[in-house]
């Protein structure tokens, strides 16, 4: 019986695999096309707030609605673009949208996620990104580039140089998803960045007493190295309290607002202003 089951299982598995691979091929072709036409593509913005409740920034997040499959998760689309080597085209699109958003909100800093794949090959990434934002009429200082440990473990020497040139040009650099990797603390000493983004697992543990101590320690270390700290994935009042009690400088999460279109963001800012007035 076990044998027969195994056989069925593997046939089922291979049909599933076929379906997955077919979907994958289809998404690859269609994403490439979408990047050429812009159809179904969007960039959403999620507000970042300081302890006084003021909106101080936004994170730009790639969005793709497929004509047949509907919304595709950002991580899936990004992974396809990375593997199929059109991540640079996707990244330029997001950066241009983010820069235009930044131009309409000069008081906000706008964060853009970077893929490790953008750092590969001998290229002057800083010059390329600098040219794009200046074409859109904004200063790099208004743009924060989010990198992850996934990048830092690749080719450390080269990364260190590229991060340094990005910062020399005026871009701010943030370490995203902090706390999910292994040797985070070492990276903090080695790679100079401007901001630490505490992963949402910190927020999720807010109910646990010790977690305040852990967040406080992480924030203390970051501050002693001259870094700002933002907590992401805040969903409840309690998580917000823990973040600010631990000394975080800013927060981001669905408790305040989910990522939204640039137009909806304008309305959100309006409603914040009228709430404050
Ligand atoms: P990330 O950079 O850590 O972005 C934060 C993710 O958490 C976003 O998911 C956001 O929608 C989600 N989020 C925000 N607030 C909450 C909350 O309160 N609770 C929960 N559960 N989630 C929240 P999203 O948009 O699906 O993006 C997933 C990941 O895909 C991002 O994680 C980032 O690594 C990548 N990504 C998104 N856009 C881009 C892009 O333009 N370029 C690159 N290279 N990567 C991107
Ligand atoms: Mg991010
Ligand atoms: Mg993150
Ligand atoms: Mg991430």
From TrEMBL:
The chain holds residues 233 to 509 of 509 of the full protein. It comes from Sphingomonas daechungensis. Keywords: Membrane, Transmembrane, Transmembrane helix. This is EAL domain-containing protein. It comes from the Bacteria. Residues 24-273 form the EAL domain.
């Amino acid at each position: 019986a076990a044998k027969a089951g195994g056989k069925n299982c593997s046939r089922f598995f291979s049909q599933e695999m076929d379906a997955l691979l077919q979907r994958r091929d289809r998404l690859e072709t269609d994403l490439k096309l979408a990047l050429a036409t812009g159809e179904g593509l969007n960039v959403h913005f999620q507000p970042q707030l300081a302890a006084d409740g003021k909106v101080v920034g936004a994170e730009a997040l790639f969005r793709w609605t497929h004509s047949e499959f509907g919304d595709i998760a950002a991580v899936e689309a990004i992974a396809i673009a990375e593997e199929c080597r059109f991540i640079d085209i996707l990244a330029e699109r997001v950066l241009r949208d983010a820069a235009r958003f930044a131009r309409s909100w000069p008081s906000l800093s706008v964060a853009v996620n970077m893929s490790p794949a953008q750092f590969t090959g001998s290229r002057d990434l800083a010059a390329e990104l600098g040219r794009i934002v200046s074409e859109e009429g904004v200063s790099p200082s208004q743009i924060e580039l989010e990198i992850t440990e996934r990048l830092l473990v690749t080719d450390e020497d080269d990364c260190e140089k590229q991060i340094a040139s990005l910062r020399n040009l005026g871009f701010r650099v943030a370490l995203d998803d902090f706390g999910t990797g292994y040797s985070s603390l070492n990276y903090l000493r080695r790679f100079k960045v401007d901001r630490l983004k505490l992963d949402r697992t910190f927020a999720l543990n807010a109910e646990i007493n010790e977690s305040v101590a852990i967040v406080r320690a992480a924030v203390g270390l970051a501050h002693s190295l001259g870094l700002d700290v933002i907590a992401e994935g805040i969903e409840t009042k309690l998580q917000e309290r823990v973040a600010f009690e631990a000394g975080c400088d800013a927060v981001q999460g669905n408790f305040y607002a989910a990522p939204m279109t640039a137009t909806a963001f304008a309305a959100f800012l309006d409603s914040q202003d009228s709430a404050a007035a």
